[in-house]
Amino acid sequence: MNVYSSVCKEAGELPGYQELALKNRNAVLRESNVSPPESKPTKDIVDQESDDSIADEDDHIVIDPSFSFEFSGGALQAKINSAWNFSQVKSSFETNNQSNSKFSTLDEKIEKKRNENKIPNLEDEDVDVVDGNVESESEETSAADEANKIEQNGSDGQELSSDEDISDEEELAEADNDLEDTVRDKKAAEFFAPEQEIIEEQVETFTEMRLSRPILKGVAGLGFVKPTPIQANTIPLAMKGTDICGAAVTGSGKTAAFIIPILERLLFRPKDVATTRVLVLVPTRELGAQCHSVASNLGKFTDIQFSLCVGGLSTKVQELELRKRPDVVIATPGRLIDHIHNSPSFNLDSIEILIIDEADRILDDGFAAELNEIIRNCPKGRQTMLFSATMTDNVDDLIKLSLNRPVRLFVNSSTALTSRLTQEFIRIRSSKEQHKSAILASLCSRTYKTECIVFFKSKADAHMMKLVFGLLGIKAAELHGNLNQLERLEALESFRDRKVDFLLATDLASRGLDIAGIRTVINYDMPTNYSLYVHRVGRTARAGQAGRAVSLVTEQDRKVLKLAVKNAGAQSHIKNRVIPSSVILKFQKKIQDLKEKVKEISKEEYEEKVFKKTEMEINKGLNSIKHQDEILSRPKKEWFQSQDEKLQQKELGVRNHGASKKEKNNEEDSKNKLKRSPLDGLSRKKKRQRSQFLEEEKEQLKSQKFSVRSAKTSTKPKKVKQFADKINSKPSNGQSTRKKKSGSRFDAEVKGKRR
Ligand SMILES: Nc1ncnc2c1ncn2[C@@H]1O[C@H](COP(=O)(O)OP(=O)(O)OP(=O)(O)O)[C@@H](O)[C@H]1O
Fold it and tell me: pTM of whole model > 0.80?
């Protein structure tokens, strides 16, 4: 039975629903170039056996009706199509892009160099191929062996001797953190709604949620049958107007969790005067475009109007759109503020619902000034909903949003990763960091050959690797802030449509992007904090699919590595991979041989850039002469921040990007440890005694609190969070992370969780 049959069965009682489902099915099949089956009497559709063959043919739109979500993984056991396309957004660029046509594209430049120099494709050569899906035992064993060898020959000796100090520091940090937690718990109890306000039962189907028919049609059109846990918990509460802080693992359907209830509420809006009632804030333009596309698809059968208001698109076009007062505006903070200040008829006075997606990122220092300005402009009585996979529940962060007793819907622990994710780590010793590009090239040509995102810390590295990959004959697109918006969207689409095998990206692509079927995420550079790691690796293993994250780990990245291993679920797989040095050397030589060609292409690009800039300046000058009167008569644009302020804030954002307050505090703490520690000046023995005392005191407090809580909970009905936690709870592996282990620390850290 395919998705439409299941939907029809679920919605069987709704009059006329079967006809709608039939039309809908045919529309989706047409879009997917699958001919709809011959028209049959409506009743037959429900049990049509022949539909199964269509299901087999087109796995983009058909899901296994027996799918279910795992709380631990938050994942679907079904394949489903990504619900976005950017054609609508891209059409607004077509007029601006003509001057580019006189230059060759980067791919053409690369191809020209390859042809001139007769560079062979990697496939044509005799490279020893390792099956990417099957973990090679020999590779794993040799990883451990190699690490042990390094230990024995003393190169890591210093590192081991510092173990003692590190565990002391860890103990103290833990004691500090525990105290902080107690204070935090108290604040949270006052700030958040009491837990009994959380819905008590899981909702099994969308129809049970009493959604209106046009919304159910939109939901069915995307192939959704059963709500995911975050949807089941969020939708009914959000429809009541409750403020929500929602967290669930990456790829678990948070977008629909907030879009569906707003659509349902908007269906019943007064329609006499067009009014913008809903504002969705997202941190990146791509995420905005994706969210706009998902919302438009879900609201396809309603008269609700959506507008996308993000940087990189024409301000003029947006201004005209905003003047029509669309019901829902999806915006990035900077562009939204630009409109608040400079589009005469636009303001946020009528906003009734504010949604902040990737809220922890937007609450981050990088967006602080902009967020304050937006909140200041929104009415106080609005409903506010915040979502992220790594949602903060730090009250200090949330207070500035003036939430009204929000309900916490943490469907999983905020650091959990889906159990379908395999994490692999490759140790890069400090003396070998210059081999990273060779390691990446070998991984991408021997092991993970398709559907793979590679994350870099800088735009320059991503671009350089695009040139190297191109010259090696590996099909890749780049995605970072040095590209214009059209190029960014095209890169995403060509990767989604499998025109290229690799997406070489900066953290621009780390949050929210939903591209179906990504098999592997490679961290060429490990992210600077664990939250960011969660978001990056969350681009794979989404919606029930399995996936793999491969990280190149240098000595500086040990902190994030440790957190990744510590937070991996009991069932998740952690592996240590080593690439034979002969292979690395081979690729190192290949890359070395391409160095000159890379330089030549870069020079060509630079000259082109200078030419374009000059041309643009000339055109600008000519225009200002031609339209002088009109330009002078325009009202002066008001900038919310000066260029310097913007830059400062951006740098702050980049530095802290994605770091939770606690992580940032921990980083600060460890920097200022000596200055700020209350145990400063004590001998090591005394420090131990003191922290043991603190530990005991904390334990006592905890157990008291626990008894009070369990007494209370025994009299209360079951709560969502408890239910999720119970399912999430993993058996302790009984292994202390502080125990000394044989082998290298890296090896031990990775192996710590390998079962
Ligand atoms: N009820 C559902 N049934 C089937 N598929 C669903 C359902 N809800 C969402 N999906 C699919 O799951 C995928 C992930 O959804 P979405 O992008 O909203 O996840 P997310 O939780 O916001 O992830 P991230 O934290 O990375 O932003 C999408 O492809 C979406 O179409």
Answer: no
